[in-house]
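Quick log. Single chain, no ligands specified.
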Amino acid sequence: MLIPALDLIDGNVIRLQQGDFARQTTYADSPLPLVMAYQQAGATWLHLVDLDGARDPAQRQFQLIKEIIKSTSMSIQVGGGIRRREDLEKLFEQGVQRVVIGSLAVREPLLVQAWMQEFGGDAIVLALDVNLADDGRAYVATHGWLETSDQTLEAVIENYLAFGLRHVLCTDISRDGMLSGANIELYRNLKARYPQLFLQASGGIATLDDLRQLQQINCDAAILGKSLLTGAFTLEEALQCWPDA
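-> predicted structure:
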């Protein structure tokens, strides 16, 4: 499955390099034309990142998200600094299918485990963004990638398996927004160790060959952000080599 992604600040579609707000590029002043284009191309899911909400939960772009949901038949997953139960409730009420939770899953596992049990494993995606150490281990970053925790990617996943974990979105931070190629080895190891999880690969995807390699290792989905916005390839071209089910 291919999932186009739109990062939103103040209603604009933007991209950050490696999560750095100082390295921001604006691609559109409204996401709606892109939403329509992705749907027409054949996408069945859309990934939204509310960067205003990530910086300040009081500034979450609920109205814009609502407009996007009304404009499309695609299923939608939304992330960006989700910290409060009321945010989950409001997003689900608006019609969001999955809420993406990142740093909180590392900082407050008991809370997120309880949400997973309450809302179900198919309603929550763990966004585990990693920095690779010299020894090859992947350590999960928090606080908008500003800090790296002492928890490995595998340790965090193990902490949620008994609570219904189903969806994991994993990003190699060093490659995010860089169009430097996907970290195939990272996803190969993850999928081999946890074949029961629905794995979404993110970060660095730059060519159609990246998508073919992800398919070959049985990765379940790929998040496409900058590659589509910059025209590295079109969604139609991508779906020809990886049709959505």
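The chain has a mean pLDDT of 91.
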